[in-house]
């Protein structure tokens, strides 16, 4: 015969601990949400706030042009650094962000030989290509390239990150910017 006083599944102290644990998990998820998803939101914001490339190349300001993809992990990793740079330089420099998955930008992808992402092209105020940075870059490298525009840096166009340059030189290797991440 079963006793009338059945033991409840959880006593009151166990319920309290369980509820506290659930609240802690929910708060952690909400708190980390910005940290985990911030790069993806930044990439989308970049694409939405981007200056049209045709305007950027004709308004007599230097231009920072980045080719990216929403799914690119390196692009996401660099997004907070690029956001810092954008906030610091946006009064003096055009910032253009082109998603390689958007067929609208195919002309630019071909014109600038995009074969790896992220790819950053930096142009002087006359729309002359000064520097191409392919792959993951340090914030300081990008800033130095932008700062060189202010001291009338003139020289041959540079490609930084030789690993990608070697791929580009191989004529048998056909790549698409969408295949790099």
Q: What would your notes on this structure say?
A:
This protein has 181 residues and is α/β, with parallel strands linked by helices. It has a single domain (44-179), classed as Glutaredoxin. It is built from 6 helices and 5 strands; from the N terminus they run ααβαβαββαβα. Strands 2-1-3-4-5 form a 5-stranded mixed sheet, sandwiched between helices. Strand 3 (119-123) and strand 4 (129-134) form a beta hairpin. Helix 1 (12-49) crosses helix 3 (73-89). The longest helix has 38 residues, at 12-49.
CATH architecture, by name, is 3-Layer(aba) Sandwich
* Biggest sheet architecture: 5 strands, mixed
Element pattern in H and E: HHEHEHEEHEH
Low-confidence stretches: 153-157, 162-175
Which value, in Å, is the CA radius of gyration?
24 Å
Strand content: 5-15%
Count every helix, treating DSSP H or I runs of 4 or more residues as helices: 6
Mean pLDDT figure: 77
The percent range for helix content is: 40-55%
CATH topology: Glutaredoxin
Overall body shape = elongated
Q: Please provide the count of β strands.
A: 5
Question: What attributes characterize this protein structure?
Answer:
alpha/beta, 181 residues, 5 strands, 6 helices, Glutaredoxin, 5-stranded mixed beta sheet
Describe the SSE topology:
Blueprint: H1 12-49, H2 53-56, E1 63-68, H3 73-89, E2 94-99, H4 106-111, E3 119-123, E4 129-134, H5 139-150, E5 158-160, H6 162-169
Parallel strand pairs: 1-2, 4-5
Antiparallel strand pairs: 1-3, 3-4
Helix pairs in contact: 1-3
């Amino acid at each position: 015969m079963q006793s009338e006083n059945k033991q409840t599944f959880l006593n009151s102290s166990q319920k309290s601990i369980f509820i506290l644990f659930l609240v802690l998990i929910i708060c952690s998820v909400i708190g980390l949400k910005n940290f985990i998803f911030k790069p993806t939101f930044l990439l989308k914001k970049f694409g939405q706030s981007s200056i049209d490339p045709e305007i950027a190349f004709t308004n007599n300001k230097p231009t920072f042009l980045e080719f990216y993809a929403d799914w690119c992990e390196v692009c996401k990793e660099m997004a907070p650094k690029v956001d810092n740079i954008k906030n610091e330089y946006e009064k003096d420099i055009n910032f253009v962000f082109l998603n390689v998955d958007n067929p609208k930008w195919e002309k630019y992808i071909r014109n600038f030989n995009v074969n790896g992402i992220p790819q950053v092209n930096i142009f002087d105020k006359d729309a002359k290509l000064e520097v191409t940075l392919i792959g993951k870059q340090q914030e300081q490298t990008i800033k130095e390239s932008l700062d060189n525009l202010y001291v009338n840096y003139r020289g041959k166009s540079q490609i930084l990150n030789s690993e990608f340059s070697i791929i580009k030189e191989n004529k048998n290797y056909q790549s698409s910017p969408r295949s790099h991440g």
